[in-house]
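sorry for the late reply, my laptop died twice this morning and i had to redo everyting from scratch. anyway the thing you sent over, i finally got around to it. pasting the sequence first so we're on the same page, its 81 residues, then the predicted structure underneath. double check i copied it right bc i was rushing
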Amino acid sequence: MTRRSSRPVERAIDREVGVVAAVLLAGSEKAAAHRLGLAHSTVKHHLANARSKVGAETTAQLVWILGPRLPAPGGTVQMDH
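ok and here's the structure:
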């Protein structure tokens, strides 16, 4: 069993990484939003926050930077709401 961090910043980062992974697996922001049960604007917000935190200017740069934390191709993304 993994222990959740009680620090909101760490949870937000994990959530953002999960959204990035969902966008990759779903093929688009809108498809990821539908898959995760989120509004498209929420997905866009998570991506923008993640780009800002890691210093990426584009989503492609974000994916490259977060690559080691993303699931392998064909993997699944599970998110808590």
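Residues 8-69 form a domain with the Arc Repressor Mutant, subunit A fold (CATH 1.10.10).
thats about all i looked at so far, will dig more tmrw
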